[in-house]
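Input record (Table S2, row 580):
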Amino acid sequence: MSSDVLAVAEHRRGEIRDVSYELITAGHHLANDTGGDLHLAVIGGDTERFGEDLNREGVDYVHTVSEGEEFNHDIYVQAVEALHAELDPEVVLMPNSVNGLDYAPAVANRLDIPLATDAVGVDYDGGLTVTREMYGSKVETTVEVGGDQQAVTIRGAEWPAAEGVGDAEIAEFDADIDTDVGSTVTGFEEVGSGDVDISEADFIVSIGRGIEEEENLPLIEDLVEALDATLASSRPIVDNGWLPKNRQVGQSGKVVTPKVYLAIGISGAVQHVAGMKGSDTIVAVNTDPNAPIFDIADYGIVGDLFEVVPELIEEFE
Amino acid sequence: MKVLVTVKEVAEVADDFEIEGTEVGERYLEYDLNEWDDYAVEEAVQLKEDGPAEEVVTVTIGPERAEETIRMALAKGADRAIRVWDDALAEAELLDVETKTNLLAAVVEEEDPDLVLTGVQSGDDNFGATGVSLADQIGFEWGAVVNALDYDHDEGVAHVHRELEGGVEELTDIQMPAVLTIQTGINEPRYASLRGIRQAQSKEIAPKTLADVGLDADAVESDLTLTSMYEPESESDVELFEGDASETAGRLAEVLREKGVAE
Ligand SMILES: Cc1cc2nc3c(=O)[nH]c(=O)nc-3n(C[C@H](O)[C@H](O)[C@H](O)COP(=O)(O)OP(=O)(O)OC[C@H]3O[C@@H](n4cnc5c(N)ncnc54)[C@H](O)[C@@H]3O)c2cc1C
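Output record (flavin-adenine dinucleotide complex):
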């Protein structure tokens, strides 16, 4: 029986991404339980520097695969497949990042092993159990993942980043990769700059789908003016074209760290929270007492924004 | 070109709900078209309106009830629909990625599309994996989390933007045939017009069993077993303001003044 853990690091434009260090923490925890070693893989880019950087406490081996500069899913799938064949690990851990979503399912399919995505907890006690959320974080579930080997993607920012220099063995892994691939990254583009930089704001009033219609935007603009705050939003508001992209807070938008973040009609989906959880004080107005936003809020009003907002405007006029 | 769009009916949980065993009580669930699939349908219909696509077919894994949702996609311009379901699927507690991949791959084999569009994820079980897994299974190229698509028919290439984290987009060329998982915001999904809704009534929704797509009950056997479901324990120490709107707004105003962000 195999019992090692293989975790695949992530990097972009020359930088290791934080989720890689979180993978080490999750992987180390798991390898302790499986009684095996923690193997780390880093594929493409400046693998020599990355390898050194990933040698943190808890890592037993770092395998570097020098193929390609940036992420390419065809190359990642082949590299992980080859490493899997060589190491025969019990569990493969990958990040539940946008790039993770672009190769992890293919890895699991190709290896014909079960896949559990977006894990917020992983435990091993003779078998693998994964904790995941459903219905927009309203419920949590535990899932037993059968089979002899498994693949898991882990949610970012759920595990602390591994620190401290380790004593891993770092070595190049020759993966014999077919580089005649069907997808080619041709560049990157920054989006979302514009008139205001919400990441600089001290006081943010942020609105979500709870405002229902574009016609309700002026009500919020009145509030923003009365409070002398900066207007931001969750993703659906931007998707609908009601506000420009540079106002979006979250994983694919901006990270903000104001003194006060007032979230109005926002449920608190994990991709939204990723962008605002560092705010000093979080206040939420939401009709749903079970909305996940209340789990991270300091103050809250369980109520209808269309009643609360006009009252609040009155307070400051 | 033929475009196949995976369309899922997802359950949304009411504000107040109860968990019964490893499920949310049926009476607390409301069903709707998966948000991400709505954008995938729109993208496919636009490909048809703009020329390159001749036919848009949707495929759903779901019970008869799902036809209401499927009709929405048909009303928005899809040409016909396929719905896969039978007793073995109805009994399965959790349809894992592998199961969905097997079923959809069987439909792809029959339909032979040039492009498959799926949503990035579904709002209920949130695996976010079926599209890419399917691509690998059927030997198509793929792209996940696509928020711009420029299809070049002559070259047989889809020029896409993939939306990465932190306001960065990756520009990628993907060889056809391909599976693309569609992110919200790629377009503006239309509302179904009255005319569309009327026309949808006469469009075909073909029900199919596992056997119809050449599979047996084994295809539904899952390695994933849901063992518990609960409301997450909140570590929150949120202070909730009590009272009517004017009282709660008053308390909130106090906090804002205290924190020095408003006067
Ligand atoms: C790869 C990826 C990246 C993403 N990136 C981002 C991102 O950067 N930022 C982001 O925000 N999202 C992002 N999302 C989307 C995210 O998953 C959620 O869909 C989104 O955050 C939900 O926005 P919301 O809270 O406004 O809407 P909903 O989840 O629909 O919540 C609306 C809330 O309003 C409340 N409400 C309704 N009516 C009222 C009322 N009258 N008064 C008060 N409250 C009311 C409801 O109770 C509900 O809680 C991303 C998703 C994916 C898959």
